[in-house]
Amino acid sequence: EKMKASDLFIKALENEGVEYIFGIPGEENLDFLESLRKSNIKLILTRHEQGAGFMAATYGRLTGKVGVCISTLGPGATNFATAAAYAQLGGMPMMMITGQKPIKKSKQGRFQIVDIVGMMKPMTKYAKQVVNGNNIPSMVREAFKIATTERPGAVHIELPEDIAEEEVEENIYPVRPYKRPYAEKTAILDAVKMIEKAKR
What is the per-residue pLDDT across 57-94, written as a single tens digit (0 to 9) for each? Predict the structure, then answer.
């Protein structure tokens, strides 16, 4: 079934069990927000992107689920930096979705364009730009898995304006629970003996 890439993004977030998205609307994320309007996911409007980032990070900290926030491009997206560092240092699962000017052809040149993916790389576990709408489900699944597995932290996806309105195929990936490795009882008992024998 064909659908708009922004609809597919929302479907991928619904598939992950997202209930809320914190953030601020803007020209570059209008397709995403229109798709969100038709969804059960609630948009929590904030006054500032940093507030949205802290809300998403704290939601992640308190629930263990990925907190999601959204902003536009450039200065709006740079406001997520402090919240990203907060989530990353505190081990809180959060996802930041930022808008971007069209990447195939833009009439406005470099207006308000900042390399947000480059900025986010050192302070997140994952930061990527969507260059093809059909990749959205695999990117969302990968980002959520990375955000929640040890040690939890921040992830970032940039969704350019022209990619958001692309027509794509529906292909959602099932969420599979991952198994945490655990030590055998004999290994734990050996460790206990070593600790008991230790002088310091």
Answer: 999 999 999 999 999 988 899 999 999 999 999 999 99
* CB neighbour burial string for 113-125, b if at least 16 within 10 angstroms, e if fewer: ebebbebbeebbb
Q: Which of 47, 167, 155, 151 is nearest to 94 (CA)?
A: 155
The two three-digit tokens of residue 158, written as one number: 């940039």
The secondary structure of the chain, three-state, reads CEEEHHHHHHHHHHHCCCCEEEECCCHHHHHHHHHHHCCCCEEEECCCHHHHHHHHHHHHHHHCCCEEEEECCHHHHHCCHHHHHHHHHHCCCEEEEEEECCCCCCCCCCCCCCCHHHHHHHHCCEEEECCCHHHHHHHHHHHHHHHHCCCCCEEEEEEEHHHHCCEEECCCCCCCCCCCCCCCHHHHHHHHHHHHHCCC
- What's the order of all strands across the beta sheet hosting 154-160? 42-45, 20-23, 67-71, 94-100, 154-160, 126-129
Asked if 31 and 164 count as a contact pair (C-beta separation under 8 A), the reply is: yes
CA gap 131, 158 in Å, rounded: 9
The confidence score (pLDDT) of residue 177 equals 78
